[in-house]
Design a protein that fits this description.
This protein is mostly beta strands. The chain has one helix spanning 2-23, and strands at residues 31-38, 45-52, 78-79, 86-90, 94-96, 99-101, 104-111, 118-123, 138-162, 168-185. A hairpin with a 6-residue loop joins strand 1 and strand 2.
Length: 187
Amino acid sequence: MKKFATLLLAFAALAVGSLPLVAQQKRVSPHESVFARIGERPNVTLVSITYGRPFSKDPKTGEKRVIWGGLVKWDKADRLGADEATLFLTQRPLVFGDTTIPAGAYTLYIVPSATGPSKLAFSTNIGKWGTPVDEKSDLARIELVKGSLVAPVDQLTINIGKTPDGNGEIKIMWEATVFTAAFSVKK
């Protein structure tokens, strides 16, 4: 298991490190990696997300942008973050509702909806620039729970957290909206 984890993390570092060269693009937003150990022994896994963190303000003009329904269109697949595609890694299979995501590396993107269920997509097409979104390589799309934040968030923020029952959740926060996806480690 440790060899697999080391190999997976080395692959991710190589993929993320070489993206600017492959994409021939210039980063605009700061980047962050978040991770958490989720599950109960012996089913514990490291889950990580590496993503670009754009601001609500336009980087060229400084003007405040409408994010959901504006910059990120409703009911259309859109990259989750900025610059390189958002990278999701898991050492063990994860279960989101009725959907199992095998251990491995994936690109995450979002399909937000104003009136229907919003979706988080797991794509097998990794190591690319964030646009255009490659919907043909979807492994799965899972439903997100949409909610409101008490205070607005100026910069896209993604968290991976452990719930009191030992399971996990991904939270995507930006503007006044939070999207949540609960998951467990497959036994």
